[in-house]
C-alpha cells in the first residue's frame, strides 16, 4: 500500500506541475497579446485612417526576439518587420498578433513571412473585422502547418476576454466601421463643476488646465476629423473679434489642429444649416490642413462661392442631420471623428445615435450664469430614469481636472458573424459580395482595394534622363510628377521628400499641400498631362504584378468605379456625378490586356 500511495502521490505531483506549467504558458500568451496590442497603438496619430497591427515574436524559452507595428496602410506589415528583427531566432517561435493579418492585395505577405521564417505557432487576439478578409489568414496559416490559437475561440477564460478586449479597443474605430455605416465618434467637452462650457458672454478660454488641453491635442491627432457646429464658429469668432488678450492682441479663434509638430493632421468639419458663418476665421486658413463645410442645399450661395475661393470644400445635403453626415464621411473612408461642438449639435448627434464615446473634462471651477451654455442641449427627457448611462466608465485625474470617459454604445460583438473554416463559399460559391455589373473600389482594405493608387505596390518608372527610379506606390509617383521639370530648387526638394515619404497618404499630403501653398512650383502643363502620368503608372503596376493583372482581368464585363464621394475628377462622386477617370483608365488597361491576351492566343493557335 505504501508503494501504491507513493505512485499516486508522484502522479499527482506531475499532474500539478503540468497544470501549473500550462497556466503559466497561458498567462504568458495573454501578456504577449496585450503587448502586441500596445505596440500596434504606436502608429496612432501619424497617418490615418488605417487599422492598427502589432506583432511580437517569442522563442520557446520565452525570449522576445522581434517586434513590429504597421506604420500606415501601404507600408511594410508589422509581421514582416517583426520577422526581420528576429532573423534566424524565428525558428520554432510563436508570433503574437493583436489582429488577424489583412493581406487584401493577393500578396499573402504576412503569412509568407511566418512560413519562410519558420514560425510554428500564431496566437491571434481577434479575427479581421472586415467580412471579406475575416478568417483568410488564419486558414492560410493553418494550411501551412502552423498552430493557430484565436482568443475567444481556441482559448477561453475571463483573462482571455480581458486580453481580447484590449485588442478590440486598440482597433475600435475599425471595428465600428465594419459593424456599421458610421465612423467611431467621440464627443469631447470641458466643463466647470456647475456644468458650464462657457461664460454667459461666450468666453470659454480656458476652462480646463494645460495638461488637459494637451490630452485634447492627443485625441485630435488620433482622429480623422474634428467636427464643430456653426454656433461654435460664430460664438468664438464674435467673442475674439471684440475682446483682447492681456498683451493687447486679438485672441485667435480656434484652429482645431493637433499641434503635435508633424504627422497626421485631422481635417476640420463645420456643420452649419444656415451657413451664417464669419468671413474671417482661422478655419478658412488651409495652409496646414483642409476644412470641409457641410450645409443644407441652397444655403447662402454667395458665401459658398466665397469659401470655394479660399479652397474650402462645401458639401450640401437636402436635409442636414448628423447620421446622414456621418454616413457620408464613412463613405469617404474616415474611421474616427472627434466632436468638439456646442450643446445643440451634441444633443442632435446623441439623438441620432452617432456618438459612441464621451470624454468629459471637469475643472474645479464654478462660473454660474443662467444663460451660460451646457455641454448637451435638449434631449427630450423628462425623468431621471430616461438618462443615458455610460458603459465602462473610467476616471483619471489630469492636473487639477478630472477626466470622465465612457461609452454611450457597447462595443460591437463580431463573434456571431465569424465564419468557420469550411463555411466560406460552401453554401453557394457563385454568390459575390458585390453587384457584378459595377465594381466599386476606394480604400486599400476594400475587396478590390489593390486598384487604389495607395496600395503598397512599388513601381519602377524612367526619369527625365531615362534612368529607372523606384517609387513606393503609384500615388508617390503621381504626386511627385506635379513638380518634375520645374527649374526651382524647392520643386526638386519637394520631389525628394515625396519620394521618401513613408506611406502613400503622406506622399499625397505633401503633394497637395505644396500645390496649395506654392502653386508656382507646379509644372505649367500639369492639367494636360496628369491623366497620361496616371495611365503610365497604372500600366506599370498592373504589368509587373501578375496577381494584380489577374484581378483586373477578372472584372471583365463590369464597370469599375473609384467610389470617392468627394473627388469628382478621379472618382465617381456621391451620386455618380464624378468623372471617374481612375476607373476609366483601369477599364482602358483591362481592354488592352485582354486584347493582348486574345492576340497571343490567336498566334498560339496559328503556330499549332
Automatic annotation (TrEMBL):
Q: What is its main location?
A: plastid
According to its record, what are the GO cellular component terms? chloroplast
Domain named CMP/dCMP-type deaminase is located at 27-149
Positions of transmembrane segments:
none
Return one Gene Ontology term, BP aspect.
Answer: carbohydrate derivative metabolic process
Where in the cell does this protein reside? Plastid, Chloroplast
Highest rank taxon of the organism:
Eukaryota
Q: Which UniProt keywords apply?
A: Chloroplast, Glycosidase, Hydrolase, Multifunctional enzyme, NADP, Oxidoreductase, Plastid, Transit peptide
- Please tell me whether the keyword Flavoprotein is annotated for this protein: no
Pathway membership, UniProt: Cofactor biosynthesis; riboflavin biosynthesis; 5-amino-6-(D-ribitylamino)uracil from GTP: step 3/4
Which EC class does it fall in? oxidoreductase
Q: Which reaction does it catalyse?
A: 5-amino-6-(5-phospho-D-ribitylamino)uracil + NADP(+) = 5-amino-6-(5-phospho-D-ribosylamino)uracil + NADPH + H(+); 2,5-diamino-6-hydroxy-4-(5-phosphoribosylamino)-pyrimidine + H2O = 2,5,6-triamino-4-hydroxypyrimidine + D-ribose 5-phosphate; 5-amino-6-(5-phospho-D-ribosylamino)uracil + H2O = 5,6-diaminouracil + D-ribose 5-phosphate
Q: Which Gene3D superfamilies match?
A: Cytidine Deaminase, domain 2, Dihydrofolate Reductase, subunit A, YbiA-like
Its Enzyme Commission number(s) read: 1.1.1.193
Alphabetized PANTHER family for the sequence: 2,5-DIAMINO-6-RIBOSYLAMINO-4(3H)-PYRIMIDINONE 5'-PHOSPHATE REDUCTASE (PTHR38011:SF7), DIHYDROFOLATE REDUCTASE FAMILY PROTEIN (AFU_ORTHOLOGUE AFUA_8G06820) (PTHR38011)
Q: Which family does it belong to?
A: In the C-terminal section; belongs to the YbiA family.
Name the NCBIfam families for this protein.
Answer: eubact_ribD (TIGR00326), ribD_Cterm (TIGR00227), ribofla_fusion (TIGR02464)
Q: What is this protein called?
A: Riboflavin biosynthesis protein PYRR, chloroplastic
Amino acid at each position: 500500500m505504501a508503494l501504491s500511495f507513493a505512485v499516486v502521490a508522484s502522479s499527482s505531483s506531475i499532474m500539478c506541475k503540468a497544470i501549473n506549467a500550462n497556466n503559466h504558458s497561458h498567462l504568458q500568451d495573454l501578456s504577449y497579446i496585450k503587448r502586441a496590442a500596445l505596440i500596434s497603438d504606436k502608429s496612432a496619430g501619424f497617418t490615418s485612417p488605417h487599422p492598427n497591427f502589432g506583432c511580437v515574436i517569442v522563442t520557446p524559452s520565452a525570449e522576445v526576439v522581434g517586434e513590429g507595428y504597421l506604420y500606415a496602410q501601404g507600408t511594410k506589415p508589422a509581421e514582416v518587420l517583426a520577422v526581420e528583427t528576429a532573423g534566424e531566432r524565428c525558428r520554432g517561435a510563436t508570433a503574437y498578433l493583436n489582429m488577424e493579418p489583412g493581406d487584401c492585395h493577393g500578396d499573402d505577405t504576412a503569412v509568407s513571412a511566418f512560413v519562410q521564417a519558420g514560425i510554428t505557432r500564431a496566437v491571434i487576439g481577434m479575427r479581421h473585422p472586415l467580412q471579406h478578409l475575416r478568417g483568410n489568414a488564419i486558414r492560410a496559416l493553418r494550411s501551412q502547418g502552423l498552430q493557430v490559437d484565436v482568443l475567444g475561440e481556441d482559448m477561453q477564460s475571463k483573462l482571455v476576454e480581458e486580453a481580447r478586449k484590449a485588442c478590440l479597443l486598440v482597433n475600435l474605430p475599425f471595428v465600428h466601421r465594419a459593424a456599421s455605416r458610421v465612423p467611431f465618434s467621440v464627443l469631447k467637452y470641458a466643463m466647470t463643476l456647475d456644468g458650464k462650457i462657457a461664460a454667459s458672454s461666450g468666453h470659454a478660454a480656458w476652462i480646463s488646465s494645460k495638461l488637459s488641453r494637451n490630452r485634447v491635442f492627443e485625441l485630435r491627432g488620433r482622429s480623422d476629423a474634428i467636427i464643430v457646429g456653426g454656433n461654435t464658429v460664430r460664438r468664438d469668432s464674435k467673442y475674439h473679434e471684440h475682446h483682447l488678450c492681456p498683451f493687447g492682441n486679438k485672441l485667435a479663434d480656434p484652429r482645431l489642429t493637433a499641434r503635435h509638430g508633424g504627422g497626421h493632421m485631422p481635417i476640420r468639419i463645420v456643420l452649419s444649416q444656415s451657413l451664417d458663418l464669419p468671413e474671417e476665421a482661422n478655419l478658412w486658413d488651409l495652409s496646414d490642413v483642409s476644412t470641409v463645410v457641410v450645409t443644407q442645399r441652397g444655403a447662402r450661395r454667395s458665401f459658398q462661392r466665397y469659401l470655394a475661393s479660399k479652397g474650402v470644400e462645401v458639401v450640401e445635403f437636402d436635409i442636414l442631420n448628423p447620421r446622414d453626415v456621418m454616413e457620408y464621411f464613412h463613405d469617404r473612408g474616415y474611421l474616427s471623428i472627434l466632436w468638439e461642438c456646442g450643446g445643440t449639435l451634441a444633443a442632435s448627434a446623441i439623438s441620432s445615435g452617432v456618438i459612441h464615446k464621451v470624454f468629459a473634462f471637469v475643472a474645479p471651477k464654478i462660473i454660474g450664469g443662467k444663460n451660460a451654455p451646457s455641454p448637451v442641449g435638449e434631449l427630450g427627457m423628462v425623468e431621471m430614469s430616461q438618462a443615458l448611462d455610460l458603459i465602462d466608465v473610467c476616471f483619471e485625474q489630469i492636473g487639477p481636472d478630472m477626466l470622465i470617459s465612457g461609452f454611450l454604445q457597447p462595443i460591437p460583438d463580431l463573434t456571431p458573424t465569424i465564419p468557420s473554416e469550411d463555411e466560406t463559399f460552401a453554401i453557394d460559391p457563385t454568390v459575390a459580395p458585390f453587384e457584378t455589373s459595377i465594381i466599386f473600389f476606394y480604400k486599400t482594405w476594400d475587396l478590390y482595394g489593390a486598384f487604389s493608387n495607395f496600395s503598397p505596390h512599388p513601381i519602377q518608372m524612367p526619369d527625365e534622363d531615362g534612368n529607372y527610379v523606384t517609387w513606393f506606390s503609384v500615388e508617390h509617383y503621381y504626386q511627385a510628377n506635379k513638380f518634375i521639370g520645374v527649374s526651382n530648387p524647392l520643386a526638386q526638394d519637394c520631389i525628394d521628400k515625396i519620394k521618401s515619404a513613408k506611406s502613400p497618404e503622406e506622399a499625397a499630403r505633401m503633394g497637395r499641400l505644396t500645390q496649395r501653398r506654392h502653386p508656382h512650383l507646379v509644372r505649367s502643363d500639369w492639367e494636360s498631362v496628369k491623366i497620361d502620368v496616371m495611365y503610365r503608372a497604372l500600366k506599370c503596376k498592373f504589368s509587373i504584378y501578375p496577381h494584380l493583372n489577374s484581378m483586373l482581368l477578372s472584372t471583365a464585363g463590369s464597370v469599375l468605379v473609384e467610389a470617392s464621394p468627394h473627388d469628382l475628377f478621379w472618382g465617381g462622386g456621391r451620386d455618380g456625378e464624378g468623372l471617374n477617370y481612375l476607373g476609366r483608365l483601369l477599364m482602358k488597361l483591362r481592354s488592352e490586356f485582354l486584347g493582348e491576351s486574345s492576340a497571343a492566343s490567336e498566334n498560339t493557335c496559328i503556330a499549332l
